[in-house]
Amino acid sequence: MPMMDRVVAWISHERCTCNKATDYWERYDNKKKEIAERERLEEESRKKRERIERLLGNSGIKKRFQNRTFKNYEIDQGNKDAYRNSKLYAENFQRFKETGEGIYFSGGFGTGKTHLAVSIALDLINKGTPVICMTAIDLLAQIRKTYDKDRNVSEYQILQVYKEVDLLVIDDLGKEYCSDWAATMLYDIINDRYERCLPTIVTTNYDDEKLVDRLARKSNYETAGAIVSRLHEMTMGITMNGKDRRKERS
Length: 250
Ligand SMILES: Nc1ncnc2c1ncn2[C@@H]1O[C@H](COP(=O)(O)OP(=O)(O)OP(=O)(O)O)[C@@H](O)[C@H]1O
Ligand SMILES: [Mg+2]
Hints:
By secondary structure, the protein is α/β, with parallel strands linked by helices. It has two domains: 32 residues; 194 residues, Rossmann fold. It has a five-stranded parallel beta sheet, with helices on both faces. The radius of gyration is 24 Å and the shape is globular. The model has no long low-confidence stretch (mean pLDDT 89). The structure holds adenosine-5'-triphosphate and magnesium ion.
């Protein structure tokens, strides 16, 4: 072998092919692939977070909600299962992300639905997961704003972040005035996430049946039914029966 070829062979670490070395190189290659994949996912998450920040700012969580964490959630007999399941959900989010399973928090006013949903969102945001957490009213308002002439963000861009974010939290579903347009938008977002198998968390005062009525407003029963049917399949239900903590405080 000429001198130059020998040098190149040495620099490129020609691999020994004995059994022990083959095992070693296999593990080495797998580890390298694993690191590259982790870096790719981290970069993807970073880009998504930047896009959310640019288009919506602060993941959509308003100031009043920023301190609704697991830490300051008071546990009582009525909410301990809801608390435990929400905490487990946040801790095992990667598993739920793979299956696309979300949560359907339902129950009366002031029972802690939003507090738990926001606690999950904040916990994941702190770990670097891209999350959007907004009321259904704000979520629709962000789309509507894109129709302003001087806005250089398109409806498509906003819809894409709702459709692609790792976790979408829709707070207070059913409270919005649900015109045909609003029902179609909500269907588009939820159906897309359903098809992509991405998790969605919903909080609402209504059970399945009542939510269909709220979303249909007498004219969109098919769309409303399709939304609720998908949510049913995409989420585990957590029903909150506790006291109204707002009343308790006043
Ligand atoms: N277990 C709890 N520990 C501490 N604070 C709580 C708890 N449950 C609710 N709260 C507080 O009570 C207020 C109302 O709770 P929250 O907004 O979560 O209710 P909700 O079920 O979403 O009500 P609504 O149906 O009206 O939206 C909030 O300030 C929240 O932080
Ligand atoms: Mg709420």
